[in-house]
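To: structure subgroup
Subject: Chain for Friday's discussion

All,

I'm putting the inputs and outputs inline so they're searchable in the archive.
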Amino acid sequence: MKIKSGFAKREIAGSIIVVPVGKTSLEFNGMITLNESGSFFWDCFTNDITVDDAVKMITDEYDVDEDRARADIEKFVKMLEDNNLLEK
């Protein structure tokens, strides 16, 4: 699964913001604010990966156990699914 194309992630005034671009802005009317972890998760899912792949990337990058990483990723994926932002 991966994040649909048509979104740009930018740092603006110290905040990490994701906004729709092009025709996606007609379908998604809003923006997403990410914290540091959310930004890393977003970057992970710009490629076609599995939850297991993302958990591995997170545990390699951060000092966090696998169970916590999986719970955080699953919550993030649910947010993406709820907002129709994932390609599967």
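Points worth raising on Friday:
The mean pLDDT is 92.
DSSP finds four helices and five strands in the chain.

D.
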